[in-house]
Amino acid sequence: MGVGIPAAAKPWYKILYLQVLIAILLGVVVGWLSPTIATNDWIKALGDGFIKLIRMVIAPIIFCTVVSGIAHIENAKKVGRVGIKALVYFEIVSTFALVIGLIMANLVQVGHGLAAKPDAGAVASYVKQAQAERSVDFVLNIIPDSVVGALARGDILQVLLFAVLFGFALMAMGERASRLRGIIDDTAQAVFGVIGIVMKAAPLGAFGAMAYTIGKYGPAALGNLVGLIALFYATAGLFVVIVLGLISRFVGFSIFKFIAYIKDEVLVVLGTSSSESALPQLMEKLERLGCSKPVVGLVVPTGYSFNLDGTNIYMTLATLFIAQALGVDLSLRQELTILVVAMLTSKGASGVTGAGFITLAATLSVVDPALVPGMAIVFSIDKFMSEVRALTNIIGNGVATVFVSWWEGELDHGKLHARLNQQIDPSDVKTAVTTG
Predict the structure, then answer these.
(1) In what helix (H) or strand (E) does residue 400 lie, and over which residues does it extend?
(2) More confident call, 204 vs 115
């Protein structure tokens, strides 16, 4: 009885990542062969509706996990220590992402020869939106007018701030807050239960999002912009394999095994173009991977606002591509300005589809206002770029959490290697433990 009986293998058609993969392939086929059907409002609603289902629980999950993570720490200094380590890691790795994007854009220069003459009016609304987003002081924007309003809007940074303060308050209360901590922990589990129900609709969401994208834009519509898409994919791949791969090897695991471990989340992100759509499942899997709960509760939500490696790569590549397409020669000082400005404008950009495009507008307006109308060039393919942005972001945040857990001395290496080598599905782990 001491040895648990392994859970029975699931039939292939019941495995989530295979369902999502099949849905993505069907979406591509339908979008390619029948654009009229694929661009129907009901098809589009499948993808949009799934993302909205996920987003409705993001704020409560972040609140509960951050509060729980802090409240269970007996030493307040540890919270500050973990936070500082996470921010140091974020800034160093984000700088690598920006520099790699800048180098690749200068080496390949796929924008030359496009001879673009963009219509500034086509992007006026996006520029206006970006300016409105960044016109408010960033620090003041983190402070919510009301906690209820922040939760209702799903403003991650504002919810995160209140959660940190609330967690410290519970920590200071000691034993008196034990009942409330238990309620918050139970609430978090209940919300994860909601996510489990919602995830059953992931294949429908992935099908709708992919079919609409292919149906609306189509491969032929990409034209000369295929080069930019290919360059972005290659650069993001190099960043994941080289930069994140070296970090993973330093900690003692393979980046490829890690990606395989979070394959469900990766495919959901691929289908929805939103890294937020997999946030709850990622947090749960990282805990099962051997990362401590307090580190996961602090690093993952913070990383979704401060560690957007895919968005950083996109901004440097897209900015230089637009400059090359418009024939605008950027000086070395302007290219270095891109690094600084992109580092700042990417902070607070959520993992929701299209956020990187708005952030690009802010970056272009600061580097050189003459580049802003060029956003029309990349607008039509932004959807194809957003998938890789989101994929790079979620992988980067996963590796960051493992690294900070290791740095903090709270990484269970035995559990880490067991999960990565055996590829245990979290749901199967629960079954096996129960059976044992």
Answers:
(1) helix 382-407
(2) 204
What's CA 333's distance to the chain center, in Å? 30
**pLDDT for residue 414 is more than 60:** yes
pLDDT tens figures, 23-35: 878 888 888 888 8
In a domain, 382, yes or no: yes
CATH number at residue 72: 1.10.3860.10
How far apart, in Å, are the Cα atoms of 270 and each of 61, 89, 276, 411?
22, 25, 12, 28
- Using CA atoms, how far apart are residues 338 and 356, in angstroms rounded to an integer? 15
Residue 289 lies in a domain: yes
AA identity, residue 52:
K
d(CA 369, CA 251): 43
Phi/psi at 112 (5° precision): -65, 140
Q: How deeply is 332 buried, as exposed, middle or buried, from its count of CB atoms within 10 A (0-12, 13-18, 19+)? A: exposed
SS3 20: helix
pTM higher than 0.70 for the full model?
A: no
10 Å Cβ neighbour count for 179?
A: 9
Q: Is the pLDDT of residue 132 over 70?
A: no
397: containing domain: 12-435
Tokens 């990766």 identify what position? 266
Q: How far apart are CA 214 and CA 381, in angstroms?
A: 11
DSSP assignment of 100-160, as one string? HHHHHHHHH-TTTT------GGGGHHHHHHHHHHHHS-HHHHHS-S-HHHHHHHT-HHHHH
Q: What total number of domains does the chain contain?
A: 1
Sign of torsion over alpha carbons 374, 375, 380, 382: positive
pLDDT class of 249 with cuts at 50, 70, 90: very high
Q: Does residue 199 sit within a domain?
A: yes
Q: Are 94 and 305 in contact (CB under 8 A)?
A: no
Cα distance between residue 303 and residue 346, in whole Å: 11
Instruction: List all residues 6 or more positions away from 357 whose beta carbon is below 8 Å from its beta carbon.
Output: 126, 375, 378, 379, 382, 386
Angle ∠(190,194,196) on CA atoms, nearest 5: 110
Are 248 and 254 in contact by the 8 Å Cβ rule? The answer is: yes
CA angle 162, 399, 433 (to 5 degrees): 85
Do the Cβ atoms of 332 and 422 come closer than 8 Å?
no
Average pLDDT over residues 71-99: 78
Interacting residues of 5 by C-beta distance below 8 A, sequence separation 6+? 432, 435, 436
Residue 2 lies in a domain: no
